[in-house]
Each structure stands twice: as C-alpha cells, then as structure tokens.
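Subject: Protein record for review, amino acid sequence with backbone structure tokens
Why sent: The fold of this protein is of interest and is recorded here as tokens.
Enclosed: The protein record, placed directly beneath this head.
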Amino acid sequence: AYRVLGHRLTQPQGARTILVTSAEDGDGKTVCAANVALAMSEYGRAKVLLVEANLRAPALASLLGFKPPQCFAQQLREHKKNPMGTWTIAKISQWLHVMAVDTESFDTPELIDALGIELAVEHFKRLPYDYIVLDTPSVLGQADVPLMNDCADGIVITAIARESNGAAIRQATQMLAPANILGIVLLEG
C-alpha cells in the first residue's frame, strides 16, 4: 500500500515536498512518513530526504533503528546563529537520507521554531533531492503544522480506521485550508 501511495505522490505534477500530519496524536504520522519515504526511494527510483519536523514527540530515529549523527533540533538552533553553516544529514541508503532528532540529547521545546524548520526545508529544496518528506506534529492542539504548511507542496493526513475522530479530521482540514491536501491515508489500527 505504501508503494502505491509513494507512486501516486510521485506522478507527473506531483508534490516534491510532502508534509505528513494527522488531526490528533497517535494516528500513524511517523510510520506513514517513513514508509512513504522508503517506498519512494526503493530501488533507486528517487533520492529522498525524510525530515523529522515533529520536535514535540520525536520518534523517527527509534522507528528506523539508528542514532542520528547530529540532532536535527540542535542543528536548527545552530543555524539560527550561523545560517550559512553546514547540515549533517544521515545516509540510511544511497537513496534515502534522514534528518532526525536525537532523543537522548534533546529536551522537548515549549515552542517549536516553525520558521526555522521552514528555512531549513527551503535550503534542503536546493539540494539534489527528488522528494522531501516531512514528519510533523498533529494539527489540532498547536499551531506548528499550520505555520509549516507553506514550505510543502502538498499535505497527507493520516487516520486510523475505526479509531480516529471524523470531526477532528474535518476540523484539521479546515485549519490547513487553503493548503494543497493530497489526501487522507487510512491506516489499520
């Protein structure tokens, strides 16, 4: 199913920068973002950068089973002081690279630097990646995603079958308007 989703997202005129979110926490955002990035990069079809933009509940490094060479959140802080500095990006494979938070050295911030993430993504767009997939927080309960959606060409919303709240999904899509919502991915619970 993720291969089909990845294929549909990479169709001509498809989105190059894809933001993956959900209405509420626990609806499979990180699993979906990682699997879509893996599917897109599979067999060298595309060079993909997967970015953990969910600084409130980072889980990407744990899910992928690696320790980031440098914490993405710490790099965001450093680039506020030195915008021209270099970025350290983990190479999972030749075709899949990841910017993830090191949860061992990172303290969850009270406020997310959405502008810093947006500037980082604008920089990453100038690098030789075919696609950038952003794993973000949920829409409801904070302003992170509505502030970040300008840096994405399209948004994928995840939901859990028979568990996710339909009213919350409608509210989240309204909050994201007029962003380009590519669709809702319904995951098995």
In short: The chain has seven helices and seven strands. The longest strand covers residues 154-160. The radius of gyration is 15 Å.
